[in-house]
User: Fold these one by one.
Assistant:
Number 1:
Amino acid sequence: MIIILFASCLSIVASGSIVNNRPIIGVLSQETFSVQHLYRNVNYLSYIAASYVKDTESSGARVVPISIGKPRSYYEHILRHINGVLFPGGATYFNQSQGYADAGEYIYKIAQELNDNGDYFPIFGTCLGFELLIIIASGRGEKENRVKCHSYGNQRLNFTDDFRTSRMFKGASDDIIEILANDSVTVNAHQFCIVDENLTSHNLTQHWQTSSYGIDDQGIRFISSIEHKRYPFYGIQFHPEKIAFEWRASENYPHTWNAVRANRHFMDFFVNESRKNTHSFADEMEEQRHLIYNYAPKYSGARGGYFEQIYVFKSQRLNNYT
């Protein structure tokens, strides 16, 4: 039996747990190193690839863009009003002051505190975002806890023996697992990766569960999917968002129906994780002020950009909040 509370758009399921049917995901922006050359006459300070926004929306959530270069109080404010955070992939450095990595570290630590206090708050990292999760968990030092890796192709997932015990995969249907395990439907595009040694060297194996691996172009076995054993923090090295929303012909992304179906699993899973807390904005006007609908994506693919569309931001003062 499900009782719907229309006023708050929450559901109380038979177990008594509350499910949020209006989830909002924060997507962290990043420096414009890889896109600024497309718009040389405008000083854009950060961007978000639109494929991450579309992927999130396709799973039934809305998006709030999150600024880089802000004080901790900004991230505390945002996380109190949204239901999860996506660290997207891309191309930026982790040693830039007040950049993507600093913002990610604030968010990671605030999310830890929320979960420690019984407030279920998930983070999902894709590619660069996955690497950032592990580097933050390692303790950000001068030497980054990741290795050089070169993987620019489509792969299948090599699942671990216990992958079905992971939260990420225990609810996945057998046909989705079969596609992921046997067909080359995961898009890899990375020059760094996380390997087992990165976990053992920083005593992370007791806190993180690896559920699948990939093989790079030189035969290095890298971790493809991982999750924290205590916190709802998840990372994948590949790019589910590219299957349905990136169309650059030279990249040879798989656009088959099986590829689309299998890759939908990851954002569907994450958005469902975000439904487990009831964070919300104070009122509809404040919510509207923060949503990404206030910004228009640019067709960067027509300029030869790596992404089909991007959101670019001239100011770090997103969301009308300082």
Number 2:
Amino acid sequence: MRPLDALEASLMAPRRFTLDEYHQLLHVGVLKEDEHVELLEGLIVDMTPQGRPHALVISRLNRFFSRALGEAYSVRPQLPLSLSPDSEPEPDLAVVTREEEEHAEDHPRTALLVVEVSGDSLRVDRLIKGRVYARAGIPEYWVVDVNSRTIEVYTAPGAGEGRYLSSRTLSGDETLAPSVLPGLVLHIAELFA
């Protein structure tokens, strides 16, 4: 079988959906609420299944943030964020203000911190989701790579550029203090213990 040429590929371009259309597909039952999909840049994308290391890291992060943050913030594990007219990702973890969660029309439209736990989804999390979160102005984004046992920290979203302007990678005995949540310190080794 030969590869598609540019004309053939353009004739077969996927249909992109708006956030309103995506919600309508859920409302009328075309998409079921328990389907593991999310809307990214207009495309309905299957979410990667979770293995044990992935689930364990999400559980540990959820416990860490929930204990440390108290009532002023809401820790949202694997719940939607309505970030733009064409994107509603379901990050592994998002920290939002209590006010944002309680007053959002559908789902929160912003977050202070978003975390994606990655294994097979590393490229999507770095590139596509990183672009979605940067464009939405999320101030801090973490990609937790369970395979390399590292955390990539992205800050300074360049909304116009669709990318974060600053990044660093932490591992081993290092600690991570989220810039948007002063006073918190995460020991990276404990996350992967």
Number 3:
Amino acid sequence: MADRVKQIAAQLNYPKGMLAGQTAIITGSGQGIGAEAARLFANEGAKVIVSDIDGKKAQSVADSIVASGGSAIAVAGDMLDDAYLKTLVKKAADFGGGKIHIIVNNAGYTWDGVIHKMTDKQWDAILALHGTAPFKLIREASPYFRVKDGEPRSILNISSTSGIHGNAGQANYSLAKAGVAGLTKTIAKEWGPNFGVRANTIAFGHIQTRLTQAKEKGAFITGPGGEKIALGIPEAQTKAAGPLMHADIPLRRAGTPSEAASAMLAVVSPLFSYVSGQTIMVTGGRNM
């Protein structure tokens, strides 16, 4: 996929990469889809700000990009901390020579529970992370997007099929991810006419990440108050599905982080220069 993107870029006369000269903030890019996107964006010439709550992982991704000849810095912190958002935007602008061109709101996790057992803490934490934090980052970075310098500006908000169709056990996540699409359309309508800012949403289906791996592998994130939140899907649930696990996906498999990141690159690239305000389903055909 990455090689095909390079071929297209060469054909379109982007010898230094489709994102050459652009500065991109990618939240949650210390691992998984975000890390793949950071490397891919850098490979296409972007100056990448690796944003993640895990400083060691963020630095590792940035170091790998620099070692490969790309340009990146790590700015670690908590997306729920307003002071961090200010620092993130300032360091990104400084790194980009006073400009920011791309924001990818990718950071997040799930904290599931059926409706009648979901706590206020679960509800508030997921809405804050997936809804309020992206809004606050975009608002903080608005001076760098509401400009008329002839350069491209793009905001990509990551959603999920849970936000499109709902999902049992994910009332909080479904509401937050549904709201992401509304935020995206509002940005497109407010900042498109005078500033040419494009804003789009990608709704991912089943992608191979720590959120979809076996819960028994022990992946967790530290939530509000230091609480450990287990990530993943119980093995019993996936075993019960058996060969029908991907039966409703026309491609009959889960997507890879690389495929997910490639879709993200495509949406922020010149290949999608006339696409704005859209929710793009990256699902292998599921939920057509």
